[in-house]
# Entry
Amino acid sequence: NAGVTQTPKFRILKIGQSMTLQCTQDMNHNYMYWYRQDPGMGLKLIYYSVGAGITDKGEVPNGYNVSRSTTEDFPLRLELAAPSQTSVYFCASSSRQGSPTNTGELFFGEGSRLTVL
Amino acid sequence: AQKVTQAQTEISVVEKEDVTLDCVYETRDTTYYLFWYKQPPSGELVFLIRRNSFDEQNEISGRYSWNFQKSTSSFNFTITASQVVDSAVYFCALSEARAAGNKLTFGGGTRVLVKP
# Structure
């Protein structure tokens, strides 16, 4: 199993450009997340989803959008890139609370390093 | 709202020394889960342990051990006989049972540097 796959791994954007970070998981997890990690800092939750068609804001949602049309995919959209969005972005997934396989553990992708100049 | 504090931003030790990482949390939920993740220099996040709020037993896994104390809202992590490969950033995290979606709130991380 591939687990959680993020693309691209690296990207440089100019101010005002837009882009989509792709995330897909093959573990049939209901829950998916996007976190950002600024240099020397912890992870902050941007958006999360508890199932296809259901998304909700996390701690730092401004400047981002998400969609969840399938269980597997959870893309993150940056509409007007700003230097403050320079960060490493992590996608993660976990199984549903109450499911036999739920350990509460989040499985993370390898991260996408985004630089906005 | 929940909060996780890792007061130590960086710890430097010499190989074979023990190192303890502090984690203090805040939550209003009576059922919650605490985690430790490791982020080596390569950048990925590696799950180390999950602890339920109703299980205060300490845990040992090889050179790693965890001390969970509800009375002080702490979940500290000790690496015994540290090795160079332990050099990484370690994150403590909290998930509240009644919050939707297993969301984790992370502390700011503690960077551990183990010198040979």
